[in-house]
Amino acid sequence: FEKRVNDLNNELLKVVKPEEDCRQSSLVYKEKLRHIKSEYAAQQNDLLLLNDSFEAVFKYIDELFEQFEEFVENAQYDDANAILPKVDQILHEVSSALPDLANLCTLVVSIIPDKFISLENAYEEMIADNYPLSHLNVKSSIRSMKNDLDRLTTRIKRFDLKDVHLELDNIVSHIDEFFVRFNEEKEAKEKFLENNEGVYSTVNLIERK
Predict the structure, then answer these.
(1) Are the C-beta atoms of 103 and 50 separated by less than 8 Å?
(2) Whole-angstrom Cα distance, residue 185 to residue 130?
(3) I need a surface site. Which of 62, 79, 165, 178 has the fewest CB within 10 A?
(4) Which of 70, 82, 79, 87 has the alpha carbon at shortest distance from 27?
């Protein structure tokens, strides 16, 4: 009788153990997901640009976990375990991106667009004051930088962040360089006027003698 009981227990273990192992393996990833959702909630006001992106990612991961549960319920443990690496890869990518996302969103939503407005206003003022700026190609450069900003914004929404911060910094530097060039044009004009005024005064003195 004891042998029959042991045999029965062993048979039950063969059935139950794989299911327990599967569910135990999934707990690590479910905890990672919970942590990411918590971090996202804490920064949500700074990540409004990415609301749809995060919702889509969370929905997809939830669907993967639903598939996982269905496979486990049907004792398809190999299929269930095959889902977990997919979940892990997505969680890793989102978790790696999270620390930089708030700063990147601020750059593409507020800081750089505000800099474009300031640059455009400064350019129009310079043109109104008859500064020759055609050699700086300001308008075409602004169009190009705006296209770059749109492209980088799309990449941020996909959590594709490789070199994005560097490219955004380059846009900021390019804008700032225009302000430097504008100041150089103003200084050159002031020196020109000062020199002309000196020449004019000298001519007047000569004429009076």
Answers:
(1) no
(2) 11
(3) 62
(4) 87
pTM: 0.79
Give, to the nearest 10 degrees, the angle between helix 77-106 and helix 138-157. Answer: 150
Classify 137 as helix, strand or coil. Answer: coil
Angle at 62 between CA 57 and CA 68, to 5 degrees: 130
H-helix or E-strand spanning residue 123: helix 112-128
Residue in the structure block whose two tokens are 């063969």: 14
CA distance 56 to 35: 17
What's the number of CA atoms in the CB half-sphere (13 Å) around residue 67?
Answer: 15
pLDDT tens string 113-168: 999 999 999 999 999 998 989 999 999 999 999 999 999 999 999 999 999 999 99
59-94 core/surface letters (b: 16 or more CB in 10 A; e: else): eebeebbeebeebbeeeebeebbebbeebeebbeeb
Enclosing H/E stretch for 27: helix 2-42
Q: How far apart are the C-alpha atoms of 80 and 65, rounded to whole Å? A: 9
